[in-house]
Amino acid sequence: MTFVVERLHSAGTAFSVEFFPPRDEADEAVLWRSIRELEPLDPAYMSITYGAGGSSRDGTIRSIARAATETTLTPVAHLTAVDHSVAELRNVIGWYAAVGVRNILALRGDPPGDPYGEWVPHPQGLNYAEELVTLVRSLGDFCVGVSAFPYGHPRSPDLDTDTKYLVRKVKAGADFAIAQLFFEADDFLRLRDRVAAAGCDTLLIPGVMPLTTPRTLRTTIRLSGAPAPHRLLDRLEPLADDPRAFRAEGLDVVTELCERLIAEGVPDLHFYTFNRAKATRELVNRLGLVPARA
Ligand SMILES: Cc1cc2nc3c(=O)[nH]c(=O)nc-3n(C[C@H](O)[C@H](O)[C@H](O)COP(=O)(O)OP(=O)(O)OC[C@H]3O[C@@H](n4cnc5c(N)ncnc54)[C@H](O)[C@@H]3O)c2cc1C
């Protein structure tokens, strides 16, 4: 099984894709159609998020196992510490290993129901992602990723503190970090500069949302934790009632963002697919990220 870092250490910018677990059979069909459509483009890896509840978690485990055994893709399983004892986390990690998943994105997660509510750790659980990185590392030969936040994590008092704890996750054994959504290339590059100034040379990967609908724009604003710049809103908001025009302009915006990130030498562009392949395929083609063998 290939490690993410092996796939990203070659020259040039790769791309990767993120999915969420299916909620029902119809969802599952959509997810697998999308995975099969993206597979021939040879993404560096594919990841599946880890939800807060049992059925969603089963969906992650089932889908990532299928990706590991039935596709040519390099799977990355997300895992959070939410509502899990250390014993349960060990079980999930052991299960990932048993189906051949050797890449784990180790996250603290948010309190279920209210992401900004008080964080209450499981009585036999973990408090921070850093501890999960250490746990995963102690259980075998895994390549471990963590999250990073261009505008700082919403719970961080300031960017210096935020950077300090990100670097601690890397020192605990993380091999790469995927950045939360952001608006301008400079916002990501400032994060990269902060991490480098702290003496850390981890692989830092930008997360990119194809802006195809007003909903994807709202999701980007919510997840980024920052207000969208007027420059972006002025381009997209007037098109909110014209789906075709919004999609065309949104994909132009994202293409420009990605072109700048590629010029800045990022190792990978990590696309949030919303379990659909079309927009990511278009972007990958526009940006010339398709490998010659595809
Ligand atoms: C790429 C990406 C993928 C994600 N995937 C998922 C997913 O699949 N499922 C899901 O539920 N959520 C997911 N999330 C959301 C994530 O779980 C939340 O943002 C969560 O609030 C923080 O998780 P973390 O791993 O960054 O936590 P941590 O790194 O633990 O940080 C949480 C906060 O605590 C601070 N902190 C860290 N360590 C310490 C310490 N030792 N002492 C004091 N303070 C500390 C940090 O600065 C930060 O403010 C994802 C986020 C990103 C960016």
Number of strands: 9
How much helical structure, as a percent, in the residues?
Answer: 40-55%
The CATH topology assignment is: TIM Barrel
Q: Taking all residues together, what is the mean pLDDT?
A: 95
CATH architecture: Alpha-Beta Barrel
Any idea how many domains?
Answer: 1
* CATH hierarchy, class: Alpha Beta
SSE arrangement, N to C: HEHEHEHEHEHEHEEHHHEH
Distance between the termini: 20 Å
Low-confidence stretches: none
Question: Secondary structure elements and their pairing?
Answer:
Blueprint: H1 4-8, E1 14-19, H2 25-38, E2 46-48, H3 54-70, E3 75-80, H4 86-98, E4 103-107, H5 129-138, E5 143-148, H6 159-171, E6 176-179, H7 185-197, E7 203-205, E8 207-208, H8 214-224, H9 230-236, H10 243-263, E9 268-272, H11 278-286
Parallel strand pairs: 1-2, 1-9, 2-3, 3-4, 4-5, 5-6, 6-7, 8-9
Helix pairs in contact: 5-6
